[in-house]
Amino acid sequence: MSKKEFAERLIQLEVKLKNTGSVPSENTIYAYLNGRIGIKIELIPYIAEVLNIPEQLLFDDSARARKIFLKYLAESITSEEKEFLKAKVCEDKITSSVPKDRFYAIQDLLIYAPDVFLNELERTLKEYKDLTLKFRK
Fold first, then answer.
1. Which of 16, 24, 72, 108 qualifies as a FRET site for 128, CA 20 to 30 Å off?
2. CA atoms within 13 A on the CB side of 102
């Protein structure tokens, strides 16, 4: 994204600065981007929105920070968010050999399985995965 496009998107959000009560001008946004003036803290959520990222990633994108953020989300996740994540994570992993409805039916039944069975199932599936990856090479 160019600086011009970024500035336009930020202006479209009609962010009103607390000290002036007005939307920052394109020149002011360029000054922020070039480091001539400091970014106002109230712009952080809007900058994240323009970039389509969580605010936390503006400060630290390390694996450690991402893990902390995910842990926080996991502790407060709603059922709607859980379904969204399940769909995103599972869509890449489910192959045509396992129909989605069958995958979800099995997934729903796993909560009734004893630990001994789950441990054996996990071990067996890892072996199948290793074999599959070995033969794909």
1. 108
2. 6
The Cα–Cα gap between 39 and 25 comes to 13
Using pLDDT thresholds of 50, 70 and 90, give the confidence band for residue 95. low
Evaluate if residue 42 carries a pLDDT over 60. yes
Query: 121 vs 48, 100, 135, CA distance in Å?
Result: 42, 19, 21
* H or E element, residue 90: helix 79-93
3-class secondary structure, 48: helix
Instruction: Name residue 132's amino acid.
Output: T
For 107-125, what is each residue's pLDDT tens digit? 889 999 999 999 999 999 9
Are the C-beta atoms of residues 12 and 53 closer than 8 Å to each other? no
Q: Name the token pair of 110.
A: 């796993």
64-86 pLDDT per residue, tens: 888 888 888 888 888 888 888 87
């009103």: which residue's tokens? Answer: 16
Match 């039916």 to its residue by tokens.
105
